[in-house]
Amino acid sequence: MKTLLQKLPLEKDSSFIARTYETPYFETPYHQHTEYELMVIKKGNGTAFVGDFVGDYQTGDVYLHGNNLPHWFRKKEENMIGASMVVQFRDDFLGQGFFDLPEMKSIQELLTNSARGILCTGMLKKNIEKKLHEIEFLPGYEKVISLLNMLNEISKSTEYKFVSGVMINHSLKDQFLINVVFEYTMRNFQRKISLEEVALLTNRSISAFSHYFKKTTKMTYINFLTQIRISHACECLKSTNMSVTEICYESGFNNWANFSKHFKDHCKVSPTKYKAEFRNRDDYSVK
Questions:
Q1: Residue 12 falls inside a structural domain
Q2: In what order do the strands lie in the sheet with 118-120?
Q3: Is 161 helix (H, G, I), strand (E, B) or coil?
Q4: 122 shares its domain with 203
Q5: Tell me, what's the pLDDT at 152?
Q6: Which CATH number belongs to the domain containing residue 124 in this structure?
Q7: What's the pLDDT at 218?
Q8: Residue-level pLDDT at 24
Q9: 50: buried, middle or exposed (CB in 10 Å: 19+, 13-18, 0-12)?
Q10: How far apart are CA 227 and CA 90, in angstroms?
Q11: Under-50 pLDDT residues of the chain
């Protein structure tokens, strides 16, 4: 598995990147880059890892990632086609100090806050999604103006939420090890996973691994594993006809009481109520 501090080459006569990535180029494991990233999911769904956030992503989701914010969009199924329209830019792509201008104050604040990861909602999401689909095909000058307009629109809106509770910046070594742990967990969360077996992946003792994982991700491994299981349960509740009890065990929980408690803690509602009412809400999330 590769270590990914992604380096993004610019096209000729371009100051930033605006392009669509589709399978197999959509598949980029846990990584970070020095550029800011505004993106929309064009195809596919699965699990999003953004900073310390773990939750579902789906077609139409619009994210703004700060520079060096680790993230990964893992498809629900390996043979699924995934695609995203991505705009990646440096803070100096319009010249050193451009965003320090008084007229750019709201955008500068937005970029600073994007270190926590931003998910657009409501009409803002629809507006930015439409513009992201268009920007790839605009001529140079109009492309720059479009990006600035999108950033300005987000900065003036209240229709977004932060997805990561803390700001995380990982070293190359950390990215590699955390990527190994994340991938292993995603492949095995439906069965019992011991701390010992996960610690072995990093050649650490249980105590050393637990300390390392919490220091690196700002959450315990058990909490991370629980979030993965709850995220899977949410997807099953929304998209299958399985009973709530079946979903409990399908998601890796070994008893109903444990599942129900964790589900309420994360989603602020019971699994049964979530299954009955999710279509009427746009804001369920796993944190």
A1: no
A2: 17-22, 83-89, 36-43, 62-65, 118-120, 160-162
A3: strand
A4: no
A5: 98
A6: 2.60.120.280
A7: 80
A8: 75
A9: buried
A10: 32
A11: 1-5, 282-287
Which residues 6+ apart lie within 8 Å of 281 measured at CB?
none
Establish if 2 belongs to a structural domain: no
Q: Are 27 and 53 in contact (CB under 8 A)?
A: no
Q: b/e for 52-86, b at 16 or more Cβ within 10 A?
A: bbbbbbeeebbbbbbbbbbbbbbbbeeeeebbbbb
Q: Are residue 153 and residue 193 in the same domain, yes or no?
A: no
- The pLDDT value given to residue 169: 65
Give the SS3 label for residue 100.
helix
Measured distance CA(33)–CA(17) in Å, rounded: 13
Name every residue whose Cβ is closer than 8 Å to that of residue 116 and which is 6 or more positions away in sequence.
Answer: 51, 66, 69, 162, 163, 164, 165, 166, 167
Whole-number pLDDT of residue 5: 47
How far is the CA of 199 from the CAs of 41, 172, 188, 208, 258, in angstroms?
A: 33, 19, 14, 8, 24
The count of domains in the chain is 2
- Cβ atoms of 195 and 153 within 8 Å: the answer is no
> In this predicted model, what pLDDT tens digit does every residue of 191-203 receive, in sequence order?
999 999 999 999 9
Q: What is the pLDDT of residues 125-142, one digit of tens each?
A: 999 999 999 999 999 899
